[in-house]
Amino acid sequence: MNSFYFPHAAKRPARIAAMVALVGSLAVLAGCANDTASSSVYSYGQAQQEQIVRQGTVESVRSVTIQDDRSSGAGALAGGALGGVAASGIGGGSGRVLATIGGGILGAMAGNKVENQMGKTQGLEITVRLDNGETRVVAQAADVAISAGQRVRLISGNGPTRVVPM
Predict the structure, then answer these.
(1) What is the DSSP code string of 78-134?
(2) Under DSSP, is residue 37 helix (H, G, I), strand (E, B) or coil?
(3) Strands 135-141 and 120-130: what pairing?
């Protein structure tokens, strides 16, 4: 009986497992991309809830960056898996093991950085002088045009306060 040895066949299960982990990580990361600081988006739990409305005039508007500070870790996981798989073809013996570990670490660091950048959105810090004389500041996504001197409504209740044009 003839038997053949395929040196690359033993690596396939590890690479397949790494690719499955990568795809799973990206799916988790994509699922986390739905958070928003928009004044136009309500969560399901906020719908049909009574809101308090106050009126006022915008005193100032400043551009800000809104950073999602909740990291899922999916970027680091996906980057680590991809880096480890990519580096596993470098060297031989113990050098290959070190290259795979190093590639995994560098990939995890790069993946984490990418995830953090994806969690940033442009926003506005809006200072409003309410009709009762009080001043309020609200930061929200820059998806609605708001400028100094504009009349607005502040809508608040169970959840975020939103600044919307009148």
Answers:
(1) HHHHHHHHHHTTSSSTHHHHHHHHHHHHHHHHHHHHHHHHHTEEEEEEEEEEETTS-
(2) coil
(3) antiparallel
Measured CA to CA, the distance from residue 119 to residue 127 in angstroms comes to 24
State both tokens at 108: 């995890």
Question: What are the distances in angstroms from CA 88 to CA 52, 76, 91, 95?
Answer: 58, 18, 8, 10
Phi-psi region of 122 (alpha: psi -120 to 50; beta: other; left: phi over 0): beta
CA–CA distance, 113 with 76 (Å, rounded to integer): 8
> Per-residue pLDDT tens for 110-147?
877 777 666 678 899 999 999 999 999 999 999 899 99
Neighbours of 108 (CB within 10 A): 21
Q: In this structure, are residues 25 and 77 in contact, taking their beta carbons and an 8 Å threshold? A: yes
Cα–Cα nearest to 31, from 66, 76, 74: 74
